[in-house]
Amino acid sequence: MTDHDGAQDPDERRLSTREAADRLGVKPETVYAYVSRGQLTSRREPGGRGSTFDPKEVDALARRGGRREPSGAGSELAVRTGITLIDRDHCYFRGVDTSELAAHHSYEEVAEWLWTGEMRRGIRFTAPHDALTAARRAVDALPAHTGPMDRLQVAVIAAAAADPLRFDLSERAVLDTARTLIPTLVAALPRRAAGRPPAQAGAEEAGAGRAGDELGAGGRRADGLGAADKPAPELAADDGPLAPRLWSRLTSEPADPPSLRVLDAALVLLIDHDLAASTLAVRVAASARAHPYAIVSAGFGALDGALHGAASGLAHRMLLEVLDRGSAAAVVADHLRAGRRVPGLGHPLYPGEDPRARALFALLEDVPRARPALQAARDVITTTARHKEWRANVDLALAVLTVATGMPAEAGETIFAVARTAGWIAHALEEYDEPPLRMRPSGQYSGPRPPQPLP
């Protein structure tokens, strides 16, 4: 029996997977499908080898028609996760408000805490020599017009090929991979240098660390690392905070502390967002026991879709047009007349303003060079204010940052991809603890009924 707060009577024996399957009249694989959809709760007993189930919960599912395939028409795939909760216009990582995390901790600190539960102040992620060399060589071989997402996808494959231990899925090995893969991806991107295309800049910096990954123009970061404290050239590429390293890959403009603070906060806020399309792809790959590099590749593949990671680029171009024409009204009208959504507005998970956008807009107030782009974004929001569902989302806030700092339109997608890599690793760690190959929904066949003549 269960008491008033849902706890199981300790005297009642839990069911094994086989016993639960027998009660439901299904195969054991289907029991795990119910678990993946949130229809059953499994638990591993200390010292036990398999999952166990509450008999009352199993019986209740059987009474509701548990013999039916759980992926019936209109149902949603539900996956238990302890990483992100989205509730009432707030986003939480492991129960902590993401805006608070972004205000007090760096990207590396939050990523490490999300993976291990330990908040390690001042932690830095370092790219190993072999992986970085392989990734840079592969990226430098790409055509000059290659975009950053293509470069990131090539870099992760090259880094995987350089790691003979990539198939070790123990928690320690996965964490070691995570701490080295993220800085490798950043360092494999070519630096942006004034007057030179990215491919040329990347070719000139190939090899050991370069001095360009420190803060620019005498700036000082919130954690105290400034121009006077910059590391030696041979260490600058791999040992500094991640945000300044990424900055030099996104723009040739010098970095100032307020702008770097916005970039670092954006990285934190974008680490995870429940089961977005790319995260679901990652969970599927991890369910098949793909190694960490492969699960990140799966995430990149989904993120590269026009409806996912590229959304901030559309908002970037819209803000440039507003600044050029001096009117948000005309730009918004053109989008609507063409039957397009207004970029950077609305989110299906938030009835009000996206909390990530709210946090970034507050930080952007302290960036003097962001004022024109920030005003353009406000004009867009004011123009569309009567549509209550059209509130600002994180893509619009990212666009303000990228426009204000001379970044290209695709920079928002790059920030998104680097940030989300940490979240994908967290989801992979969760999925590796679940029964393998459980992410297997059943198709609803809609083709011709057999038998059909041989074609």
Q: How many extended strands?
A: 6
Low confidence ranges: 1-10, 67-75, 196-237
The backbone outline, from C-alpha atoms, is globular
Whole-number radius of gyration?
24 Å
Distance between the termini: 58 Å
Task: Give the % helix.
Answer: 40-55%
Kindly state the mean pLDDT as a whole number?
Answer: 85
DSSP summary: helix tally: 20
Biggest pleated sheet: 3 strands, antiparallel
User: In which order are the strands of the major sheet placed?
Assistant: 1-3-2
**Structural category:** mainly alpha
In terms of DSSP E residues, the strand content is under 5%
The ordered H/E elements are EHHEEHEEEHHHHHHHHHHHHHHHHH
Give the SSE layout.
Blueprint: E1 15-16, H1 17-24, H2 28-36, E2 42-44, E3 51-53, H3 55-63, E4 84-87, E5 90-93, E6 96-97, H4 98-104, H5 107-116, H6 129-140, H7 148-161, H8 171-188, H9 198-205, H10 233-239, H11 242-250, H12 257-269, H13 277-287, H14 292-303, H15 311-325, H16 328-337, H17 355-364, H18 371-383, H19 394-404, H20 411-432
Antiparallel strand pairs: 1-3, 2-3, 4-5, 5-6
